[in-house]
Amino acid sequence: MSNIVVTSEQPPVDAGQRPPAGLAAYARNYGARVRGGDMGALPALLGLVVLCVGFGIARPVFFSATNFANLFTQGAAVVAIAMGLVFVLLLGEIDLSAGFASGVCGAVLAVLLTEHHLPWYVAVLAALVTGVVIGTIIGLLVAKVGIPSFVVTLAGFLAFQGVLLLLVNNGTNISVTDPTIKAIDSDGQLPPAVSWVLLILTVVAFAAVRLTRRAGRIKRGLVAEPLSVIILRVGALAVIGGVAVYVLNLERSRNPAVVSLRGVPLVVLILAVIAVLWTFVLSRTAYGRHIYAVGGNREAARRAGINVDRIRISVFVIGSTMAAVGGIIAVSRANSVDPNTGGSNVLLYAVGAAVIGGTSLFGGKGRVIDAVLGGALMAVIENGMGLMGVSAGIKYAFTGAVLLLAAGVDALSRRRAAAAGLR
Amino acid sequence: MSNIVVTSEQPPVDAGQRPPAGLAAYARNYGARVRGGDMGALPALLGLVVLCVGFGIARPVFFSATNFANLFTQGAAVVAIAMGLVFVLLLGEIDLSAGFASGVCGAVLAVLLTEHHLPWYVAVLAALVTGVVIGTIIGLLVAKVGIPSFVVTLAGFLAFQGVLLLLVNNGTNISVTDPTIKAIDSDGQLPPAVSWVLLILTVVAFAAVRLTRRAGRIKRGLVAEPLSVIILRVGALAVIGGVAVYVLNLERSRNPAVVSLRGVPLVVLILAVIAVLWTFVLSRTAYGRHIYAVGGNREAARRAGINVDRIRISVFVIGSTMAAVGGIIAVSRANSVDPNTGGSNVLLYAVGAAVIGGTSLFGGKGRVIDAVLGGALMAVIENGMGLMGVSAGIKYAFTGAVLLLAAGVDALSRRRAAAAGLR
Amino acid sequence: MAATPLLEVRGINKSFGPVQVLRDVDFAIYPGEVTALVGDNGAGKSTLVKCIGGIHPIDSGEYYVEGQPVTVHSPRDAAQLGVEIVYQDLALCDNLDIVQNMFLGRERRNGLVLDEITMEQLATNTLASLSVRTVKSVRQLVASLSGGQRQTVAIAKAVLWNSRVVILDEPTAALGVAQTAQVLELVRRLADTGHAVVLISHNMNDVFAVSDRIAALYLGRMAAQVKATDVTHAQVVELITAGRSGDLGLAPTGAETVNGVQS
Amino acid sequence: MAATPLLEVRGINKSFGPVQVLRDVDFAIYPGEVTALVGDNGAGKSTLVKCIGGIHPIDSGEYYVEGQPVTVHSPRDAAQLGVEIVYQDLALCDNLDIVQNMFLGRERRNGLVLDEITMEQLATNTLASLSVRTVKSVRQLVASLSGGQRQTVAIAKAVLWNSRVVILDEPTAALGVAQTAQVLELVRRLADTGHAVVLISHNMNDVFAVSDRIAALYLGRMAAQVKATDVTHAQVVELITAGRSGDLGLAPTGAETVNGVQS
Amino acid sequence: ACGNSNKSSSGNGSSETKTPKIGVILPDSKTSARWETADRKFLQQAFDAAGVKADIQNAQGDKTAFQTIADQMITNGATVLMIVNLDSGTGKAVLDKAKSQGVATIDYDRLTLGGGAQYYVSFDNTKVGELQGQGLVKCLADKGAQKPVVAELNGSPTDNNATLFKNGYDSVLKPKYDSGEYVKGPDVAVPDWDNAQAATIFEQMLTQKPDIKGVLAANDGLGNAAITVLKKQKLNGQVPVTGQDATVQGLQNILAGDQCMTVYKAVKKEAQAAADLAISLAKGQKKAVDGKVTDPTTKKDVPSVLLTPVAITKDNVKDVVDDGYVSAADLCTGDFAAKCTAAGIK
Ligand SMILES: Nc1ncnc2c1ncn2[C@@H]1O[C@H](COP(=O)(O)OP(=O)(O)OP(=O)(O)O)[C@@H](O)[C@H]1O
Ligand SMILES: Nc1ncnc2c1ncn2[C@@H]1O[C@H](COP(=O)(O)OP(=O)(O)OP(=O)(O)O)[C@@H](O)[C@H]1O
Ligand SMILES: [Mg+2]
Ligand SMILES: [Mg+2]
């Protein structure tokens, strides 16, 4: 391939600049990067910690095992929708219909389960397919017809609201009693032993991936992560995961004789698998690379021969499918669907989660973990405010202020980045 | 100034390419521009006409004088908010708080009027000042602290919802009985004679401005509009304005003995004045020019010595102040405030109005008239759907579909622009 | 040299709205040759190249590859015909790093997974061969590169693929002395190994140093396409600025109005 | 010529994150002179100019105008000191037309209202004086301009203001033969009327044709600032590529690592 | 636009006497299922039976839309306007406009304060709240709860009816709190009556105050949200939960023993009464009614038809089915068939 040009006798660009192999030097380099403003997820994490400490002081029960489990189950639907929105936002598009699309998919699930008595896996599949269809239609209208995504999805926002109303027969609640569906985000737990096994497998797999990559790079003479850094990363994963699993495996039931509430909520496993999957897609496959390219510079991507229309359609499909996942989770949690499922502030919270996590509304910048972190932030605010038990007006005003505070921590710590010329 | 460089003996760039002075040639040139995709407001107008004809066929009463007047009063609040949002969108920012900001300002108005018994002008002023303050705070947080406007205004969206609740005492609503306030968008009409005088003054002023500009350009040897085109423009304004005033001056009351309903609704005059003002600011002042520059390329604007922060803050001030205007109109129309004032779909409709009109969410492209046209489109959909009398679910779904249709007309007619390489 | 051109366009017309930018342009590129495309600012060189590359749809005209008529609707079509172009407005993704940009649209993979290691190594070698010494790391975002570094990345990206036709739109405009020499050498080497190369440049020295054939555009029309050995420096400059030189170039009529808005 | 420089920076340091791009750079510009700033791709020329223009905040260093220390935090500060710069990455607003871009930030007004007529006329004349013949209308959006046309607009914008200091970062990179000649002539004329002019260019012929003084950057350090008459073409090329030439330039130690990530 | 206008203005005058046409504006479909599923159906049936043209629309909780619909109905030539206001302010604006156009008006279900409608037909909303409070008291007594902590899940803070419900049940519960018989637990309003938010809110209530022994939920949806959370701790059935609206879900929860009571409002009767009045108004007659309600702002009496809500517990679920409000087929699905039989529902 590059036989033409590789005729030079100069050394490769990196030669002589191989970074140091020691942990100390690596840490120093990382420190310089952070001081220079390249902080990744640090500010969002910082905001999260500040909030947790604040709520923990105001309401000590915030730090209980029960509340820890609540956090996951309460935030799950928004996180799922936000993960899908990251893909849409990466292209600089928007999906205002995601909230009600999740409602429609949830209603499809509920109707098939209760009115048509289909098995749960058929209903779940149908809900997901509904999401795919919705996404395809939106994508086609945006990419092929050329209507701005804001307008298409605003129309979708209205239309799906209507469809949802029609599906639930103009306002009745449809109860869902299927035990599998209810397990998803209502009462399903992993047995404690299984959680430990899964955690260990995850940590081992993570370590293996990192070490193999390192070995490959060293073999080809490329810069590689120092071993100590890998150990540190793996260790951090093991410790954080271990603590979380340990706490979630504590008995949370008020009445252990009647019912035992122990173990990692099922929805955590589901979201973790999805998050890993999408992270893999975005960072390790050509498709993911192309999403970033189209979002960063659509014309450059087109000139590079990327099928831009296909990418644009696909992100809406992913967005709506993840909305369907969010809808399924919401139905599971509420054990029912009503015309408000996916309504109210679900959409704004989901977009907000992605954006607070660091995803840009202008495209080209964002990661799946952003949605998870931002979603966690939103969930903590909601959860903490719930514990405070204040009146609705004060709660709204306070939630806004807390959100601003969390975002302000982020913004202020990123200002140095701008000062250093990196944006 | 340019003494250094103007030493060349070459003719000016335009020499020898002066476009023809005749109307026919001008029309041909315009035709070529339209075929080439540079269509301005044409597609939005086309969508509007398609919708009106459709509703008019389905419900002939759509074309009655009463309904024509309804259209204006129904759409006024959204148009006012949308006009302010155009400024925010021109910078590529967003203001999610505009809806509830309008509610808060409306509540301030109502509280001062009913609980503190202040005269209407003080209350209106206070509402506007509230808008200015809100805009300044948002602007400072965005421009100086550096939090993305989506997050700041999402926080505002929540917080103002709370403030509004607190202002109206957690759920009661406040009735407004002040006759001046009620006149704004409820029962105020211009006397028919006054409307005619104002229309004539407007047409004369418009003609004078165009002719003076033409004379100035011809004197300096620059390309100028042909006289025939100016006559055509002035004529069009006179005819359209004349028909509108004539229709609005017809008796609309079903019971003329009890109450006479004739004349141009007051809110039309208010909005027209505001629209002309903002159009002037955007297109004829240095400040307006700088808004476009910052929206088009923030770095280029900064390098040109524009105080970018000040511009960014100012658009949020304009946005929130126009939200206050919208709030005052909404209060006038509803004769009251309640915790939902400015809620529901007000925000999405306002942003949708601006975007459908042709304003870009990415900044740098948009006009005040876009908000008016887009707002008219939204008002026609809402008004027409009201005449159809369908059930809730179907109405939502249908509204979405109609919105899509109107936007689709626009998108399809703009596709040629893309094909011709102009975007 | 070769009788049939590797790529040829005939009678290309292209307008942007009311402005006609290309007018009945014929242009042929031969394998094993460097064809220089010259012309004044705004003559239409970049537009012609973008039409060949499928960036702009053409209004009318024919497109042949190895004598066979083809249609090109998008950059993907052009790439499939083996045409690789470095555009003047480089079009790199600022949010991606150098390696990611260089392999964009043609990533190396191991199964599903991107083969980052191979790509990084290839990118490093290619850049080194273009005399780039100041790039700190091939994992740097292109947003942080200097003007010349960006241009080098774009050139490296294009030559990585060994395409049959390589078109370079003002590739050396931002390059330093050494880098310019490297690129010109590369251009010659590409032609000598049988590729068809087009070089757009305003620098007459560079043009005469490497090109076999010179095509001059004047106000959207092809003034002349001649062997480089048949013309002098001064003649080419005359073709560029006036559209003709002696018996070469456009007929003297109407040259002043071809490109304006017709009344 | 003049003893005190019109503008001078001393000991400028500038890092982007962990990468140090400028290292203790001293640079002086004199009225009535053209100072050429040369250096390899990525040497830091544009970064230095951006620091002078207030685009990038400097990490440390001093800034003097007419011998007086000043602080420059933003492009507005620089403009107020009479420094006008054409940046390499031109930074025009694509959504504005040529006239609007040329007068951006310094619009002519009649009271509150923009004086479009005067601006249009001035823009037309200025462009004409720069040999631009292919621009159809000064009311065209700059998005639709060719590479060279954009560059001309940027240059015209800068010279319209008659500032004391004019800095041009590779102004002729995309220009045709005639336009390049016009710009070089303009540069000379500016200096001859007492302005201080800085010209960044990779073209040694141009550099020697117009400049009085030559400053060479090498890997972020100022290798030498000398009279143009005191050095030869070859010496300057050596300064650019190796950082020293004979007794001119940097001390031989450590030149290879100054710009890298320090371990 | 000008061509039609004189026709419409002259045509309107005659249409008042010629073709009676009734416009009905319902408030929303999300806070309660009744508007679209029950009221619309029963009203339409009544109008159809009388052979009167009617236009029934829903404002979807948006008061701008509410006013627009009213404008459009008047434009369309309605002679009687029947509204369920979203708030008294817009309600009054609509009624004023209608009156000025010679359109007769009826307040349906909610009284428009200061509006001066010809008739008012409703259930007593404060009474609904009282029934809920009494129901909870009874269920707590049945469970033999000592000093129970009672949590309140109120309706939307923006819904005036929610305030009326709360006034009702607080009038029952407050004395118990004051006497120390009950302990006041968390008391939070659920925005938009949103069930999903209600679940989170209640979950956090339970986390904060694990010993909650009774839940006053303002309607069946909120009640179900609380029950879902209680189920996780297997506390369902042990902690009584109230409701309102006699929805299928609510009744099923009652049959399952998870919900202690709901409030049934015989919508069919209300709709029939309102329709009768509207039809007579449309025909230009003024019908006499027995009741009256005093408008607190104007101190004037509004002729009224007031219906009484009924508390539903496991014992009288049957009545709701017998009334035709909920069909046995909808209610007695799957596991509930047996429970239906036990409750005497066929
Ligand atoms: N998208 C567009 N819309 C309208 N006019 C355009 C567009 N693109 C190019 N033009 C016009 O077409 C003409 C040719 O442009 P082109 O970029 O092809 O010139 P060029 O020969 O490459 O010039 P340069 O040497 O300056 O790069 C110019 O006058 C330019 O203004
Ligand atoms: N924002 C940035 N972040 C990180 N590195 C940067 C940034 N801007 C420039 N650099 C680096 O600084 C160095 C100097 O860049 P600069 O643009 O000043 O070079 P230059 O001398 O102008 O080169 P050229 O002749 O190619 O224009 C380059 O190595 C570049 O990669
Ligand atoms: Mg070009
Ligand atoms: Mg540079």
Automatic annotation (TrEMBL), chains A, B:
<feature type="transmembrane region" description="Helical">
    <location>
        <begin position="150"/>
        <end position="169"/>
    </location>
</feature>
<keyword id="KW-0813">Transport</keyword>
<feature type="transmembrane region" description="Helical">
    <location>
        <begin position="189"/>
        <end position="209"/>
    </location>
</feature>
<keyword id="KW-0762">Sugar transport</keyword>
<keyword id="KW-1133">Transmembrane helix</keyword>
<feature type="transmembrane region" description="Helical">
    <location>
        <begin position="260"/>
        <end position="282"/>
    </location>
</feature>
<protein>
    <recommendedName>
        <fullName>Xylose transport system permease protein XylH</fullName>
    </recommendedName>
</protein>
<feature type="transmembrane region" description="Helical">
    <location>
        <begin position="68"/>
        <end position="91"/>
    </location>
</feature>
<keyword id="KW-0472">Membrane</keyword>
<dbReference type="Pfam" id="PF02653">
    <property type="entry name" value="BPD_transp_2"/>
</dbReference>
<comment type="function">
    <text>Part of the binding-protein-dependent transport system for D-xylose. Probably responsible for the translocation of the substrate across the membrane.</text>
</comment>
<dbReference type="InterPro" id="IPR001851">
    <property type="entry name" value="ABC_transp_permease"/>
</dbReference>
<keyword id="KW-0812">Transmembrane</keyword>
<feature type="transmembrane region" description="Helical">
    <location>
        <begin position="346"/>
        <end position="364"/>
    </location>
</feature>
<feature type="transmembrane region" description="Helical">
    <location>
        <begin position="41"/>
        <end position="62"/>
    </location>
</feature>
<feature type="transmembrane region" description="Helical">
    <location>
        <begin position="98"/>
        <end position="114"/>
    </location>
</feature>
<keyword id="KW-0997">Cell inner membrane</keyword>
<keyword id="KW-1003">Cell membrane</keyword>
<feature type="transmembrane region" description="Helical">
    <location>
        <begin position="313"/>
        <end position="334"/>
    </location>
</feature>
<feature type="transmembrane region" description="Helical">
    <location>
        <begin position="230"/>
        <end position="248"/>
    </location>
</feature>
<feature type="transmembrane region" description="Helical">
    <location>
        <begin position="120"/>
        <end position="143"/>
    </location>
</feature>
UniProtKB/TrEMBL annotation, chains C, D:
<dbReference type="InterPro" id="IPR027417">
    <property type="entry name" value="P-loop_NTPase"/>
</dbReference>
<dbReference type="InterPro" id="IPR003593">
    <property type="entry name" value="AAA+_ATPase"/>
</dbReference>
<dbReference type="InterPro" id="IPR050107">
    <property type="entry name" value="ABC_carbohydrate_import_ATPase"/>
</dbReference>
<feature type="domain" description="ABC transporter">
    <location>
        <begin position="7"/>
        <end position="244"/>
    </location>
</feature>
<dbReference type="InterPro" id="IPR003439">
    <property type="entry name" value="ABC_transporter-like_ATP-bd"/>
</dbReference>
<keyword id="KW-0547">Nucleotide-binding</keyword>
<dbReference type="GO" id="GO:0005524">
    <property type="term" value="F:ATP binding"/>
</dbReference>
<keyword id="KW-0067">ATP-binding</keyword>
<dbReference type="Pfam" id="PF00005">
    <property type="entry name" value="ABC_tran"/>
</dbReference>
<protein>
    <submittedName>
        <fullName>Sugar ABC transporter ATP-binding protein</fullName>
    </submittedName>
</protein>
